[in-house]
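COMPLEX REQUEST
Ligand: adenosine-5'-triphosphate
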Amino acid sequence: MSAANSTSDTNTDDSSNRHLNFIEQEIEKDFQLPKLMGKHLSTRFPPEPNGYLHIGHAKSICLNFGLAQKYHGTCNLRFDDTNPSKEEQEYVDSIQNDVHWLGFDWDGLYYASDYFDQLYQWAIDLIKVGKAFVCDLTGDQIREYRGTLTAPGKDSPYRDRSIEENLELFERMKQGQFPDGSRTLRAKIDMSAPNINLRDPVMYRVLRAHHHRTGDKWCIYPMYDWAHGQSDSIEGITHSICTLEFEDHRPLYNWFCENLGIFHPRQIEFARLNLSYTVMSKRKLLQLVKENHVRGWDDPRMPTISGLRRRGYTAESIRSFCDRIGVAKFYSTIDVTVLENSVREHLNQVANRVMVVLRPLKIVLTNYPEGKVEWMEATNNPEDAGAGSRQVPFSRELWIEREDFMEEAPKKFFRLKPGGEVRLRYAYIIKCEEIVKDPETGEITELRCIYDPDTRSGSGPAAERKVKGTIHWVSAQEGVQAEVRLYDRLFLNEDPENAAEGGSFLDNLNPESLEVVTAHCEPALAKAVAGERFQFERLGYFCADEKDFSPQRLVFNRTVGLRDSWTKIQAKDG
Ligand code: ATP
Ligand code: MG
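STATUS: Structure written out below.
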């Protein structure tokens, strides 16, 4: 399924619930219950700091923070930092930055590691009531004993250790008396439970790894399932919203809360976002970075929040994308054009128009006085009357796009051709009189044209003589040069993970995802600031690169073309 709207599960039968998604419906029902009466909604966004946030996380952020806003509740940012070997401060910092940039602020900032002492105490409580035991099976053995979906598991031979022995061994695990991986603490639930997550799941493992916050204090670390629900409970989270792959973990989440007798949040699952032409797992994104297929986590081709930002996406456009796709209970893939359309729509409203020539061809207006410069009035943004106008210099020598001229043009080509006329945007109608070519290569080096002085734009009805085409241009003398990075999709396939037998998603990389050109820009662009966004007329939306742009070195990134060219290409190919 690729249409955006058809994926959301919204209730349309009950008029009072008309605009509620399925999570909102559940929340509103829950707050009718005595347990939550008088309480406020409390959610959290719980990233593991093992990579940069991506557009899928944006969906979870918009959902969790959005619900808190809608219901006047709270939303925490909690780092799920139970896996020290993969986590780093750089990721913690980037995550906070990205959440803020998206326009959200957390009520509490927490780390699962804040709760390591409490979790340890609770583990002891479970041992004391005979509901947890120290197990000496190796990882492989545990897997072997676990059984399968169709066959029950077998009890661990260590399952019936006495409470005293378990307490002593667990204490010694904590003190570092056993090698990594040699022992675990496991919940004693049911080795024949149909749900494999309930077959005596591991709560702690021995792992000597330096933790970015707790340092070397611990050599046992809690597993995700043992840490997550309890962290939610400690923070008084009422609704713990997560992605569908945790649905099977919900009975365990509930078991821990019930058996500890602590506040019991409700876990609700929704389908994770998948986007066509994109990979989203942090492991794969990390691989792209580490193997230099891209230039870092914030490479404008990455689906990370920082990459999208650098590409020129606005926070508004990402939020409206998340709104548009809604939340659903079933997996689907959203077409990446839905994301691209969101930024197009927003930038159409807010980006000022400028003229830039990406692949220049020189024009000389033989009847235009040498040395003369006229300043042409140009509208900054026809969608925004408040954006005003600017003056663009016009002179005898100009650049136009090479592809706006054709020597042997088909009938329907309404741009410039030998003997043909075209209007230069905001300026005059010109006529091509002569083609100059490099005698050796035959390449066109210059067009000699004449302009019609009576056709200056805006100078009265007589000037508005109609010609079929209008093209953009830049004055050769007054224009400024810029490096323009023409980004395209990083992958050639709709489903990059779907590689040929024995291959990898890397085989599907688009070798032409970046082309760099030296462009000629109207002089106003020399005054741009890093991060500023523009519409380059007739070409697309571009932004001044947030890292590399400076007044001495103009660097622009293409965010997205004006129209969806991929759909056209595919239609032609197909
Ligand atoms: P990945 O599989 O990309 O590594 P993850 O689920 O391990 O992601 P976490 O840092 O654990 O990443 O995710 C933080 C929160 O964001 C979780 O609640 C998770 O469910 C949610 N999330 C992650 N990926 C997506 C996605 N593609 N769509 C929606 N929510 C997501
Ligand atoms: Mg995770």
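REMARKS: DSSP finds 13 helices and 27 strands in the chain. The chain has two domains: 41-270, 352-573.
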